[in-house]
Write a structure and sequence with these properties.
By secondary structure, this protein is of the alpha+beta class. Helix content is 17%, strand content 35%. It contains three helices and seven strands. A seven-stranded mixed beta sheet has the order 3-4-2-1-6-7-5. Helix 1 crosses helix 2. The termini are far apart.
Length: 208
């Protein structure tokens, strides 16, 4: 089975693609840069099933006969896994799931380098073409539909055991309802602007 999982026609959420997310470690002062986002999909999405199958394979390779025990521990701690039930993603202000999450599943993916961006015709953007990269990534707003390639991997280090996911590639698929309030419209606060009045010509002695 391929190490990379394709998530077709999923909704993009909390995107940090055009510009990375920056987190500062309060103890060391070091800044961590991350290009990341979340993908929302229905519970019967084949991409999620493929993701979980790959996760099980990786866990068995890493923890052998203890794999099921470790996976159960991971499932009980949201901080150690990159996936979950959408109803877990609760807005701390409204106490309700964020837009698009209720009744669905999600996968969080990220990396410290910009992911590969795929054009509509299936060809990758030249990573050195900054203008083209920015043009496509800024089309990817929270709520739009995308195709994504992700690579799950298991964490087993001093920070504990867990399941993480690399963001490999993204392709804008189509528009959908934007999450959140969207851009504010203040057009009704303005009136029309009169055309500028032509200034009279300068006297000849000033125009010399």
């Amino acid at each position: 089975m391929s190490e990379i999982i394709l998530l077709s026609d999923v909704r993009l959420s909390f995107p940090h693609i055009a510009e990375p997310q920056k987190n500062v470690n309060e103890q060391t002062g070091a800044t961590r840069v991350s290009y990341n986002c979340e993908f929302i999909m229905p519970k019967d999405h084949p991409g999620f099933a493929a993701f979980m199958k790959r996760y099980s394979e990786l866990a068995l390779q890493k923890w052998a006969e203890h794999a099921q025990t470790v996976m159960t521990m991971i499932s009980k701690d949201r901080k150690t896994r990159c996936f979950g039930e959408g109803d877990e993603k609760v807005n701390k202000k409204t106490f309700k799931p964020y837009d698009g999450y209720a009744g669905n599943l999600f996968i969080t993916a990220g990396r410290d380098q910009p992911p590969q961006i795929i054009e509509a015709n299936g060809t990758p953007i030249d990573p050195n073409n900054t203008m083209a990269y920015q043009m496509l990534t800024r089309k990817m707003y929270g709520g739009c539909r995308v195709n994504a390639a992700v690579k799950p991997w298991v964490q087993a280090n001093s920070y504990g055991n867990g399941i993480r996911c690399d963001l490999v590639a993204l392709q804008f698929l189509r528009d959908d309802t934007a999450f959140g309030e969207g851009a504010a419209d203040a057009s009704n606060m303005f009136g029309s602007v009169a055309a500028p009045v032509a200034m009279p010509g300068l006297p000849s002695f000033l125009g010399q």
